[in-house]
Amino acid sequence: MHIRKAASSDAEELSALLNELIRAGGTTALETPLSAGEFVDWFIDGEFPLVCHVAEHDQSLVGFQSLSLYGDPPKGVADIATFARLSPKTAGVGSALFPATRAAAKELGLEFINATIRADNISGLGYYAKMGFETYDRLVQVPLQDGTQVDRIKKRFNVNAMGRATPHG
Question: What is the pTM of this model?
Answer without folding.
Answer: 0.87
